[in-house]
Specification:
By secondary structure, the chain is of the alpha+beta class. The protein has helices at residues 7-27, 37-50, 117-134, 143-156, and strands spanning 54-55, 67-71, 74-76, 90-99, 102-111, 160-161, 167-169, 176-180, 197-200, 203-205, 211-213, 220-222, 228-230, 233-237, 242-244. Strands 8-7-9-14-15 form a 5-stranded antiparallel beta sheet. Strands 1, 2, 4 and 5 form a 4-stranded antiparallel beta sheet that branches. Bound molecules: magnesium ion (2 copies).
């Protein structure tokens, strides 16, 4: 069952989302050549704690970091470590913050210094595909309406849609019903109602949509080693549209 949130729950989700969005903004000045992904992880951990929240991902199914950091051909779920960012990399940072038992979830991909035109194209259009998907949301829409929009946009721009990973409901659990795929058909899938909260999160590849998982059992990478980008907002479904909870 997809839960409709009470006004109290929505307030807490708004606060959790605010902290998540603010954490992204806090990290941006540090996303530079030479910093390690572990250092970014520590900065995020300290920031989230300073906001009276806790990192949603830390120890989630045993995940060892506070944030996921996925570089270039890494799609999602990269583990923070000693790798240093290099000029020309793109880095996807996925952040979750839990405030008084409720979660915010938002991913964003960033260039490290100047990146190739192809990588810049990937970033621009993956971000736009997120807003395309969000534009389908209103009370009474179907989950398939969102995926159909993302998929059509990606196809138009010759980008591969990762299908193995999907968006999801958000609430007192980080991952709730329903699944929100980045593909689908208009009018199909569960109906969304005012007061539901979901994370929409397209993952688009510069090459083929195929991915696989590394031996660390977490990091997902593209099968053809071409770059991938990931943009995600947690949103509240409203009567006429949606409200972004992870504002930035
Ligand atoms: Mg996320
Ligand atoms: Mg998510």
């Amino acid at each position: 069952m997809i839960s409709v949130k009470s006004s109290r729950e929505i307030e807490l989700l708004r606060k959790a989302g605010e902290i998540t969005g603010a954490c992204h903004l806090y990290l941006i000045p540090f996303i530079k050549e030479g910093i390690t992904t572990k250092e970014l992880d520590q900065l995020a951990y300290d920031f989230i704690l300073s906001q009276d929240a806790t990192p949603s991902f830390l120890n989630y199914d045993g995940f060892p970091g506070s944030i996921c950091v996925s570089i270039n051909e890494e799609v999602v779920h990269g583990i923070p470590g000693n790798r240093k960012l290099r000029k020309g990399d793109i880095i996807s940072i996925d952040i979750g913050a839990c405030y008084k038992g409720y979660h915010g979830d938002s991913a964003w991909s960033y260039p490290v210094g100047e990146v190739s035109p192809k990588k810049a194209y990937l970033l621009e259009h993956t971000e736009k595909s997120l807003f395309e998907g969000l534009s389908a949301i209103h009370d009474g829409c179907h989950v398939g309406d969102i995926g159909a929009k993302v998929e059509a946009y990606a196809k138009k721009h010759q980008l591969g849609v990762v299908k193995e990973l999907v968006g999801h409901g958000v609430g007192s659990h980080l991952h709730e019903e329903p699944d929100v795929p980045n593909y689908g058909h208009e009018g199909m899938g569960p109906i969304l109602k005012e007061g539901m909260v979901i994370a929409v999160e397209p993952m688009l590849n510069l090459g083929s949509p195929n991915v696989y998982i590394l031996e660390d059992d977490w990091t997902i990478i593209t099968a053809d080693n071409k770059p991938s980008a990931h943009f995600e907002h947690t949103v509240l479904v409203t009567k006429d549209g949606y409200e972004i909870l992870t504002k930035r």
